[in-house]
Structure formats: structure tokens, C-alpha cells
Amino acid sequence: MSNIRELEFDDINTFKILVGEYEENLKSIGRMLDISISSRGGKIFLKGDEEKVDIAERAIKELCHEIEEGFAISKSDVENKVLEVSKLGDGKKLKGDDFIVVTYRGKKVYPRTENQRRYVESMYKNEIVFSFGPAGTGKTYLAIAVAIRYLKAGHVAKIVLTRPAVEAGEKIGYLPGGILEKVDPFMRPIYDCLYDILDYREFTKLMSRGVIEISPIAFMRGRTLSDSFIIVDEAQNLTYEQVKMTLTRMGTGSRMVLTADLSQVDIQKSGLIELEKILGGIEGIEFIHLDTFDVVRHPVVSKVIQAFEKYEKK
């Protein structure tokens, strides 16, 4: 049922900060909730589904209170407030065909295939998820999107992103710099996903506060990660011993997603080969398999993958 609502503000300065330059803050709320929202003469006008208009009104009033208390608000603060008020981060109430997050550019991130939808639902339902599939199927990107959603909704305190620093043609010892500089190139795909979703300033702030942590798998040994969303990328390059070590890093309140492409194993034997036989059937653990039909990169990528698979079978 469509609902029309009018909110009036006495303090014009608070009103201007709330609306944002060129109404950017209001536009973010409208995009996230799929409602019509505009301003004129110290008033904000809302139109749309009654429940969504209720969410928008509450978020606006809470943001207004924060401004009156002397806090500056950014576009990301507005988006976080809408997520917080609407409880969109509550995985138990979510379905995989809902949008996951809104990027800093205002783009909603959705699963785009049926298998991707199952993958997202699995991350909402399970503590440990293994995602297998070829390049371009959204394994890492969707996991990072879900992790950011959980972080913004307050369900986890930090995001830990890790992957094995395995050489693919160039020996790591020959790369310049210390250990962190040496492993940085291996983490670049993770940075690319984060930069696509988060504004650079927000990302930098979260990194500096340790809320987002990116490190090679070797640095995980001996740690216990509680209240964390842990993503292990390129997990096909973990040895059996590394898989055992990684899975036992989870503390209370944590979730873990391991992504893998078994057609791109760069070590002698992947520790994931027999893992589904070992862990399959355990409650809270699920294995999701994506295929070439789930590739969401350039259309030719799916054809390239299929051509290689056909050749390698011969």
C-alpha cells in the first residue's frame, strides 16, 4: 500500500546537512528502499510502500538527532543508518534474491544467477561455506559483499580476508620489499572487490582501525578469530594441513567462507580435493558449486572457460 508522508524541520542548517549536497543523502535512502523522496522549503517528502516509508522516516529522524548532537554525517553513514534501522543485515530474515549491499556509487549488489542465489542464502544460513567454481562466477565478490553487510549491521566486529601467497611463475623471494610488500600483489584481487563496494576513504578508515584485515594465510596460525567474518580466497592452493589450521581459527560469533577454483591449483595437491567427503553432512557447513553458466564477467569469458574444459577433457 502506497503511503505519502511529510517531515518538517525547524533548524535549516540541520536540514541542509541531512539532505546533503544535490540531495545525495536523500537519493541514497530512496535507492536503498525503492521509494520516492525529495525536499523543498525545509520539508522532506516521502512516498512509497508504508513499511519502507516508516524505515526512511525513522532513519531520517535518527540522523537528524546525530547532526544536532554535533556529529558530521557522510553518505556511507546514511546508508549504514538505513541498514541498521531496517535490520537488512539479519541473515535469518534474508533471502538470497534480496540485494546484499549498496555500493558507494549507489549500485545494488544482487546475486545474478540461481546458483549465486543459493550461494548467498548459504552464507546467511551456515557458519562455514565452501564455494567452488571457475573464474568470474562471483565467489569472492559476493562473499565480500555479504561480509560488508554483516559488518554494517553489527553482526560481526571485523572482516578478515586471507589467501595463500602462492607464486605463479615468479618466486616471491625475488620481489622487492619486506614481507608485507611481497604479499601485497597476491592480495590485489581482494582489494579490487573492496574498492568496488566501499568508498576509498571509508575503506582506508576501516583498515587503519583494524576493522578490515587483509593478510596471507601463513599469518593465521596460532590465532583465534571471534566475532569475525573470515573469507579465505584461492583456497584451492591450501594444503591439507593448512585447511585444518584455517578451519580451526574460528572463534565464537564468527563465520567463514572459503572460495576455490579447482581448475587452477598451483600446488602439488590441493587440501580441498577430498574435503566434501570428510565434512559433508555436518550441520552448519555447506558446499556450493558454481559453473560456467554463473560467470558474470564479459560474455566471452564463459566461452573461453568452456573451450579450455573441453580441450583438457580430451
Any chance you could write out the topology, listing elements then pairs?
Elements: E1 2-8, H1 12-19, H2 24-33, E2 36-40, E3 43-49, H3 50-68, H4 75-86, H5 114-125, E4 128-132, H6 139-152, E5 158-163, H7 179-197, H8 200-208, E6 212-216, E7 228-232, H9 240-247, E8 255-260, H10 275-279, E9 285-289, H11 299-313
Parallel strand pairs: 4-8, 4-9, 5-6, 5-7, 7-8
Antiparallel strand pairs: 1-3, 2-3
Helix pairs in contact: 1-3, 2-4, 3-4, 5-6, 6-7
Mean pLDDT figure = 85
Number of strands: 9
| Cα distance spanning the termini | 59 Å
Task: Provide the CATH architecture of the largest domain.
Answer: 3-Layer(aba) Sandwich
What composes the largest sheet? 6 strands, parallel
Q: In terms of per-residue confidence, which ranges show pLDDT below 50 for 5 or more consecutive residues?
A: 88-92, 168-172
CATH superfamily of the largest domain: P-loop containing nucleotide triphosphate hydrolases
| Computed Rg | 22 Å
State which percent range the strand residues make up: 15-25%
Biggest sheet strand line-up: 6-5-7-8-4-9
CATH level-1 class of the largest domain: Alpha Beta
Shape: elongated
Estimated structural class: alpha/beta
- The SSE order reads EHHEEHHHEHEHHEEHEHEH
Structurally, the number of domains stands at: 2
What is the helix fraction of residues, given as a range?
A: 40-55%
CATH-defined fold name of the largest domain: Rossmann fold
Query: Can you count the helices?
Result: 11
